[in-house]
Amino acid sequence: VQLVESGGGLVQAGDSLTLSCAASGSTFSINVMGWYRLAPGNQRELVASITTPGGNTDYVDSVKGRFTISRDDAKNTMYLQMNSLKPEDTAVYYCNAQSLKLRSIYWGQGTQVTVSS
Fold this sequence. Notes:
This protein has 117 residues and is an all-beta fold.
């Protein structure tokens, strides 16, 4: 499975941004996908996750009500809609996919999100 993120950038506080993660390869084996972020001086943090199939979602408390994770199975693409962005959301965001069948975890290359105050 290969994952390619896009959509990062520099925005101002209060703005919105949508990240995309395009998956290719053995996508049929994926059980759950998620977005992680890594900010300087912090540990990697799971921001949101979504099961496949099923579409059950989960969010870290700090983004609940502001971020929405979704997926388009026809396009093999996952999204993270980020609204009301805050400077503390600044980080490199990574797409993640996990396959129980293949016992594998996959990562994208990361995309930088910078929120200025």
